[in-house]
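The following record pairs a protein chain with its ligand, manganese (II) ion.
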Amino acid sequence: MTSFADITPQLERLAIEVPSWAYGNSGTRFKVFGSAGTPRTVHEKIADAATVNRFTGLAPAVALHIPWDLVDDFGALRAYAQDLGIELGTVNSNTFQDDDYKLGALTHTDKKIRQKAIDHHFECIDVMDATGSRDLKVWLAEGSNYPGQADMRGRQDRLHESLAAIYERIGADQRLVLEYKFFEPAVYHTDVPDWGTSYVQVSALGERAVVCLDTGHHAPGTNIEFIVMQLLRLGKLGSFDFNSRFYADDDLIVGAADPFQLFRILVEVIRGGGLDEGSPVALMLDQCHNIEKKIPGQIRSVLNVQEMTARALLLDREALAAAEAAGEVLDAHEIFMDAFSTDVRPALAEWRESRGLPAHPMKAYAADGYQEQIETERVGGTQASWN
Ligand code: PSV
Ligand code: MN
């Protein structure tokens, strides 16, 4: 039997990167709601991300999105973040909000447009050099809406050429992380729809090219933990974009829609060494808080990952392996479910306190006054938003 004390060294290592865009306003194609206290600048987003870390000790880095988070001096921005106790993390490129990219960016038939998209990634790499970021995350909004609209094979070939040009530019300590998504905004075919395509494309580049698994980017019913297992087995799981979904790419709080799925995923992460010392797997959130308050939304999210990680670490692997080997189906299932059903909240609260953190970060944030302060101070200017 594994006790809570046995798992604290691994829990200690848990670090979740939060997305800068989660602090800005977001919404659906029907409406983006404004909210009091929303950041107007990258600095304010970073201050909010640092607040999540202050209350949880779980979020030591914030991911940036370019051009949303462009500033003149990224070295200074890095120093600003470090003063607040966090690092600048993954740099996300954006080739989905420019008219030129209506029919594709890295896959476009027009060489000039492909080069423009490649140059944007070069700019992202310059940003990474200044921020000290390891990962360039590429998600492509490319594909087609109607059968016959595009030559899927030609697009795949051009994608390889474009990615190879970008890969050649990344530094020895940097990685290209290719994210897949099965649909949206294109609805007939998507150029990187699944882990297999991402794997094929990054494998053709080299060792420092890996896959990003966004938990919201699969068809309903997909066994995501199987994909996690396979990518870890192949040494190609670079990062997660955690969120949860009921229907499409809902970007809800991770663990909210299906806590059991999050547990199953984390069991495979741990099984595959994803939480080991020096693991190359980056755990990130990719979420939007359309109607709930953003900072507590993020606090809730990292706590959900922590709680489910603790439960997954408590899984009695020895007993499970014995039951599996003996073909004791129901015993094996019960051992698995016992871990999932363990209430780790009291032990986690105590452990947090022993490390100088609030036992209950959600309550502590509500009582702290930071939310009131930003709501009073952040008046005027333009709120960060998808708009
Ligand atoms: C696309 O849906 C995505 O998951 C990608 O990670 C983007 O960079 C992110 O959302 C934010 O738009
Ligand atoms: Mn994502």
